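Problem 12. The chain below contains 185 residues. Write out its predicted structure in token notation.
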Amino acid sequence: MDKFRVIWHLLEEYNVDGVVYPKSAKEITEATKISLTETYRTLQVLKEDGLIWRVGRKNLYRFGLKEKTMPLLDKLYKCIIKNKPLPAELTINLEDLEKLAQKKHFQLENEEKEKEVIDEIKLLLNKIEIIPEEICIDKIKETVEKITENIDLQNDSTEEKREYIQEELEEIMDYIFGARLKEEG
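Solution.
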């Protein structure tokens, strides 16, 4: 991968000279045998990742490793060159890896459940028909007038009047909410 080749080149110089002098993209290209365009892309990614810095103005930029990344990168470089095990801060604990895998698994399960709920909601929404507001208002007014006209004419008990009102309101429930299930067929 190009990122590693660029970092490796800068680390080799650091281990030879004890310092990394900023280099132009062309110098890095010549040393790593990566195309100039790809070198610029790689340097931009490394800059965004916080591993290198850029100095210069207009189109005359030079690039170097950031000082705060040097100790860890140098340890890694020396371990690889001397074929030694990685330092503790660069190793990955298996338990941590398993925890991350489990967390990712739960995250995927939750995303799948959310997708199922969204699909179910979409399916239900496709079965609902929205009733225009004017029709709802007219139907509710009509029912309220019907109830007020008929309630006083009846000599029924309060319980029967309440049941009558409840029945009338249940018949216009769709108009109260402004939606009803679509008729199949």
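Discussion. The helical segments are 2-17, 25-32, 36-48, 70-81, 94-126, 133-151, 158-171, 173-177. Students who got a different answer should revisit the alignment rule from Section 12.3.
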